[in-house]
Write a structure and sequence with these properties.
By secondary structure, the protein is of the alpha/beta class. It is about 40% helix and about 15% strand.
Length: about 280
């Protein structure tokens, strides 16, 4: 019955459903992370502006607000450290368009827009609080090349892909539906960075296998898996973190991911802009 009600609400009143879901999760995150991140901000930044301390988005301004999960790994710059080399390559590529689906508060969307000022960045998220946070983060960094939208589908995705295009996808399993070149043929010419999740009865491994099967003829596929964080290395190399208790820093770097978390980097063999 509960699933039936959820399905009806998503079909008939999607904005209402996602607004209610958003505020419920927002309250949970505030209770779970609010006090810790407030104290960590005080100890690390004091009265100075918050900014990303290292990594590919080093120097990006940030805020002390509630987001979807812990915000402190993003302040440190250790967030998704497994992807840092890929992110650096993305920044160097010079894409015409970057599409971030499931953008949350905009770490990647705003980060890419900040580093790649000539690139059009389009951020999609069904969560109304997430879109508000994206606007706040963009304003904090003076971003003008970011477009924020609600729902993404095959038609919208196909329309956005032009020239050298990157699709970043973190949509809690919906990647199975969205990343389908049979329904959005333009995906065959786009680079894709996707975080893998279970979907319905499908395991994350089954989702991975299906996506690889769809793109094996058009993309070079690389899998990246979660790796341990190294708080001692960050404590030794980042001035703001040198006096932070190691136990506190370890918690601040915790992204609360499952041990089997993985990503796929799908590099298109050709794009609208030719080989690259």
């Amino acid at each position: 019955m509960k699933n039936q009600i959820k399905s009806i609400m998503i079909t008939l009143w999607p904005d209402l459903y996602y607004t209610i879901s958003s505020y419920r999760f927002f309250r949970y995150c505030r209770k779970r992370f609010g006090e810790f991140q407030k104290n960590f901000s005080r100890d690390v930044f004091g009265t100075m502006p918050i900014q990303v301390l290292c990594g590919p988005f080093k120097g990006l301004r940030y805020y002390e607000r509630i987001v979807w999960g812990p915000i402190t790994p993003k302040w440190i710059g250790s967030y998704e450290a497994e992807l840092h080399e890929i992110v650096r390559k993305i920044i160097e590529t010079g894409y015409n368009c970057i599409i971030d689906i499931g953008a949350a508060e905009g770490y990647y969307a705003v980060g890419f827009a900040w580093k790649c000022k000539e690139t059009k960045v389009v951020a999609y998220d069904i969560d109304p609080i997430a879109r508000r946070r994206q606007k706040q983060l963009a304003a904090l960094n003076g971003i003008e090349n970011l477009v924020i939208r609600k729902y993404c589908d095959h038609k919208k995705l196909s329309k956005e892909i032009s020239g050298k295009t990157l699709v970043v996808c973190d949509v809690e399993g919906f990647e199975v539906v969205l990343l389908d070149p049979a329904k959005a043929r333009e995906l065959e010419r786009a680079d894709i960075l996707v975080e893998l999740h279970p979907f319905g009865e499908m395991s994350a491994q089954a989702v991975e296998d299906l996506i690889v099967e769809r793109f094996v003829g058009t993309h070079i596929v690389t899998k990246t898996v979660i790796s341990p964080r190294e708080p001692l290395r960050y404590s030794a190399s980042v001035d703001n973190l040198k006096n932070i208790d190691l136990e506190v820093l370890t918690e601040a770097m915790n992204e609360y991911r499952i041990d089997s978390q993985s990503w796929l980097w799908l590099k298109a063999e050709q794009s609208d802009g030719g080989n690259y």
